[in-house]
Write a structure and sequence with these properties.
The chain is an alpha/beta fold. It has helices at 2-7, 19-31, 46-60, 83-111, 134-154, and strands at residues 12-16, 36-40, 65-68, 115-120, 159-164. The protein has a 3-stranded parallel sheet, covered by helices on one side. Helix 4 runs parallel beside helix 5 (134-154). It starts with a helix and ends in a 5-residue tail after the last strand.
């Protein structure tokens, strides 16, 4: 996603809990002649999301596009499911995108230039099922619902919000 956006002319800021991995990806993009940067982000931590938004806006300006792509997909059979697994999956896959939409959405509204948000869900919502993904499927269903709510509330500000449902990659 970052590579395609960079090739289309976007300045890409890669936000990831793996700061070294994000920095390497940004360096690779820069080496290919693109504009890129990296910032550490823990989607499960609200203060990290708030700090990420502040850093991005201060160093690169208000984003015009947000792609919520992070996600955990660890398998745990329903009948062996743990609350810890459920909560971690939803913290990253659902709460994180909510926080990013809230924070980047507020920055976009304040900038008054519209924008775009793309939330990555999954084809598990339309029939590509897999055992052991109760938490994952629930989190991606929540992303679809979150997208609808965000689209409704951000449309008056010229911000469109969509969900993409990729399959296995």
């Amino acid at each position: 996603i970052a590579e395609v956006l960079a090739e289309a002319g976007a300045k890409v800021v890669i936000a990831d809990i793996d700061a070294a991995g994000a920095a390497k990806q940004a360096a690779d993009l820069i080496a290919s002649g693109h504009e890129a940067a990296a910032v550490r982000l823990d989607l499960a931590d609200e203060s990290s999301v708030i700090a990420c938004r502040a850093t991005v806006v201060a160093n690169h300006g208000t984003p015009w596009l947000l792609v919520n792509n992070a996600g955990l997909q660890h398998r745990e059979p329903l009948l062996e499911g743990t609350v810890a697994h459920w909560e971690r999956t939803l913290a990253v896959n659902t709460r994180g995108p909510f926080l990013m939409a809230r924070e980047i959405g507020a920055a976009m509204v304040a900038a008054g230039q519209g924008g775009r948000m793309v939330n990555i869900a999954s084809t598990c919502l339309i029939g590509q099922f897999c055992h052991g993904h109760a938490a994952y499927m629930a989190s991606k269903g929540a992303i679809a619902a979150l997208t609808t709510a965000c689209a409704l509330e951000l449309a008056p500000h010229g911000i469109t919000v969509n969900t993409v449902l990729p399959g296995g990659v």
